Recover the amino acids of this structure.
């Protein structure tokens, strides 16, 4: 008779995995340790997940999907260079991103700081590239002059600083309220500097 899979057991496995991956990183965390933290036999994990990578993917996929929805920007939604309602769109995007972070703090750290040796280890770079491509497309679409090679380099540098700044602020080991205050100061500053330099 097949074993009945229980949602509570799956949730314990995911919580044990999250704790293990955060403590040791993907490569050093073991299925045995995850099982121990979940309070089950190691072999039982395989009734729920095919592999350690499947466990990791189950944890980070929903957050990654949400992050990509915000930073996988369509040109028409880009807050930095659209003249109409530029600030309103930017604030909405920032609020969406903060909500994702607040709902998934540990998974956010796992995705952006502890995903080495997984298929997700390039997530930060992908988000940066997505943002810089969107800004270049917006510059070419919404301004009188297309981006010059110099401006493209500036946009790439801006995107690196913007995304790394957000991640560094949100993963800092300080009070959550202080993080949000820092983020609310950082994002408008970066956005305004970009606008000033690309008009």
């Amino acid at each position: 008779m097949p074993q009945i899979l229980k949602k509570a057991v799956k949730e314990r496995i995911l919580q044990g995995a999250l704790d293990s991956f955060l403590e040791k990183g993907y490569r050093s965390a073991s299925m045995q340790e995850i099982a121990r933290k979940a309070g089950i036999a190691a072999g039982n994990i395989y009734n729920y997940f095919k592999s350690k990578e499947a466990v990791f993917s189950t944890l980070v996929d929903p957050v990654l999907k949400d992050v990509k929805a915000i930073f996988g920007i369509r040109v028409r939604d880009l807050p930095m260079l659209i003249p109409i309602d530029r600030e309103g769109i930017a604030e909405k995007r920032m609020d969406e991103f903060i909500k994702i972070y607040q709902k998934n703090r540990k998974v956010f750290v796992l995705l952006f700081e502890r995903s080495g040796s997984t298929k997700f280890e390039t997530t930060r770079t992908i988000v940066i590239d997505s943002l810089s491509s969107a800004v270049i497309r917006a510059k070419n679409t919404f301004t009188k002059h297309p981006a010059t090679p110099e401006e493209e380099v500036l946009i790439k540098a801006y995107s690196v600083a913007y995304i790394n700044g957000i991640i560094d602020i949100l993963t800092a080991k300080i009070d959550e309220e202080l993080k949000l205050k820092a983020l609310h100061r950082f994002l408008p500053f970066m956005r305004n500097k970009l606008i000033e330099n690309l008009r």
Remarks:
- The domain at 1-49 is CATH 1.10.10.60 (Arc Repressor Mutant, subunit A).
- The mean pLDDT is 86.
